[in-house]
Predict the structure.
Amino acid sequence: MTLVIAHRGASRLETENTVVAFERAVALGADLVELDVRRTADDRLVVHHDAHLADGRAIRDLRRGDLPDHVPELDDALDACDGIAVNVEIKNDQRDPDFDPADWVADRVGVELLRRGGGPRWLISSFRWETIERCRRTSPGARTAFLTVDVGPGVVDRVAAAGHQAIHPWDGAVDEALVRDAHAAGLAVNVWTCDDPDRMRQLASWGVDGICTNVPDVALDLRRR
């Protein structure tokens, strides 16, 4: 069965990366919620996709109390996902103002997930190889996944050899051969981001393990048919 991963919560129905969006995804029956974590100026973990707010201010330069009310702390976001698995994406892009080669966020996420019991309920992902490697070492029991836009030669083997459990490729890079090769290497394949029902059917027919989507209600309806 292909899992339905609610991208930033039920983000087509509610404001993305909010407690309401996560609660809506749980109520719909999503298998996982995907969310993004960043660091504030006062060292709080908050859930927000972009490095900047809509008004241009960088989250890394703001204290928790300076953020809009709808931006949740990680703790509150995870509470809202009670009962289902969570894919925590750690944002750590060299082009962003909050880039941190020391991976403070990865370490703090590991502490928070361990406080909640650790284990395979938690799936940690990142586009930065060094960050996800750090998570694999500091979050024992949690699953780890490498996010990528392009799946070039050797990527699948590298991810598998490093001991990660999954690869998260961009939808446009996925074909049946990739799914077959990843499975042969022992990796799960969770595709992002797909909102088209016909494409969802195709991905499911290829045996992808999860589809990350802004419309979990649509994906769940397709799966029930």
